[in-house]
């Protein structure tokens, strides 16, 4: 199956019909372009949206099976990573040896990727091309432009993929945040200009398509977090997603305002902050202390930021709850703030962690219990989706990055906003944008690979 010169195709192998392990292919004129290459972390006993039933003993890290494109590796022009979240970049170290193509991405994402590749002794084998926002690159048969959007991680980019027969706008993960605090913002004219040029299809994030209104700005969280941290009597531990550099920046400002010393607990937090510094995205005024010093400070002087907001085992917050963290022990009267919401499927683990903390006499405050906002989603709610469709005015909407219900609602919203056609499908469907729009259902076999005992194994 090879696209001809008049074809423009979209083929998702992962991330459509589910949230996680994104792997997308675009086809034109005998070549393919890969966009994102991510992982997922399945929970035993949970049924995924794609119908996969997960069991104990499965590999803890899973990714989309790339067999279709591995068999056509000579047609793969390159890979683009839109941003540095695990469900978009995490599979690269595992799958690149099968693909062996150049990788194009932004500076911050490249910093994260290099750290991952170094762990697999791949750092000097993988060609990484850093691309600036607004830049255009010819990658095989595809002319690609990187466009600034905002998300819950620095330097996310949407893509305008141009070919002689048609153009596709690929949103990546995004939101419309007028005060993102860290990294680039966005410009409405970027997207209205695309409409003037003509966009045949918009492949777009569906995560919050069933959420009314507009997502909160990162800047709107400062007061709520300041009130909670400022009124706390003992140590304060805030748990959030390690990739949210803007949230860390907010907490560093609050540490200065409340006279506390801030330290990071957890490998992913330390890694992300180091990458942000290397990419010039960590403000010089945001000083951190070594976590090993936290245990020697008066309790009311401590603000720790810890991994583990989803109740994961072996994370910093889990070890604090168990009394096994090497840097300090939580005591009755200390406070733990969850500046994050539960990812579906993690509720049971989070509840168990909260129970452990409360058994220690620790005050626990979740985003749902806080009187003011202390967490903001990184994905667009309905008003943002409507605005983007009104700006870009695509001829076709292709919802992705969501479960079936998210994508169904997204497709209806797109049509209500004036998009002539919505094509809703799932992994393995071939979306034909040109010459004649349509979907060939389940044309390509899809599945999962897992990483177990230093080897890739077939999960399904």
From TrEMBL:
Keyword Zinc-finger: no
GO-annotated molecular function: exonuclease activity; metal ion binding; RNA binding
Domain of life of the organism encoding this protein: Bacteria
Domain Metallo-beta-lactamase: 20-214
Keyword vocabulary terms for this entry: Exonuclease, Hydrolase, Metal-binding, Nuclease, RNA-binding, Zinc
UniProt xrefs under CDD domains: RNaseJ_MBL-fold
Name this polypeptide is given: MBL fold metallo-hydrolase
Organism: Marinobacter halophilus
């Amino acid at each position: 199956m090879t696209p001809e010169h008049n074809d423009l195709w979209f083929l998702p192998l992962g991330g459509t019909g589910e949230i996680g392990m994104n792997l997308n292919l675009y086809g034109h004129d005998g070549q393919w372009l890969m966009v994102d290459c991510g992982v997922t972390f399945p929970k035993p006993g949970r049924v995924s949206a794609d119908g996969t039933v997960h069991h104990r003993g499965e590999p803890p890290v899973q990714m989309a099976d790339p067999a279709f494109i591995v068999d056509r590796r000579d047609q793969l022009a390159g890979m683009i990573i839109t941003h540095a979240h695990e469900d978009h970049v995490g599979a690269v170290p595992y799958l690149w040896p099968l693909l062996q193509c150049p990788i194009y991405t932004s500076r911050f994402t490249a910093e994260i990727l290099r750290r991952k590749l170094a762990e697999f002794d791949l750092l000097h084998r993988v060609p990484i091309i850093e691309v600036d926002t607004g830049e255009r690159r010819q990658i095989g048969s595809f002319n690609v432009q990187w466009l600034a959007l905002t998300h819950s991680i620095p330097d996310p980019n949407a893509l305008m993929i141009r070919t002689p027969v048609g153009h596709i706008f690929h949103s990546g993960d995004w939101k419309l945040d007028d005060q993102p605090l860290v990294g680039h913002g966005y410009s409405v004219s970027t997207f209205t200009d695309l409409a003037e040029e003509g966009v045949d299809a918009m492949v777009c994030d569906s995560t919050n398509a069933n959420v009314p209104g507009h997502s909160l700005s990162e800047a709107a969280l400062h007061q709520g977090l300041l009130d909670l941290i400022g009124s706390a009597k003992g140590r304060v531990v805030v748990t959030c997603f390690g990739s949210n550099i803007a949230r860390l920046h907010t907490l560093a400002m609050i540490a200065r305002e409340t006279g506390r010393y801030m330290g990071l607990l957890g490998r992913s937090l330390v890694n992300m902050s180091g990458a942000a510094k290397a990419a010039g995205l960590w403000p010089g005024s945001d000083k951190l202390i070594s976590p090993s010093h936290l245990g020697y400070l008066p309790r009311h002087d401590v603000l720790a930021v810890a991994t583990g907001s989803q109740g994961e085992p072996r994370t910093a917050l889990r070890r604090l709850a168990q009394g096994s963290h090497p840097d300090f022990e939580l005591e009755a009267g200390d406070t733990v703030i969850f500046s994050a919401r539960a990812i579906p499927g993690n509720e049971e683990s989070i509840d168990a962690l909260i129970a452990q903390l409360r058994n220690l006499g620790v005050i626990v405050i979740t985003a749902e219990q806080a009187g003011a906002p202390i967490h903001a989603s990184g994905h667009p709610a309905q008003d943002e989706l409507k605005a983007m469709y009104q700006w870009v005015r695509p001829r076709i909407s292709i919802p992705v990055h969501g479960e079936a219900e998210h994508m169904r609602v997204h497709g209806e919203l797109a049509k209500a906003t004036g998009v002539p056609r919505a094509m809703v499908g799932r992994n393995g469907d071939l979306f034909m944008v040109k010459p004649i729009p349509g979907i060939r259902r389940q044309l390509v076999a899809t599945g999962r690979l897992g990483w177990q005992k230093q080897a890739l194994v077939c999960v399904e």
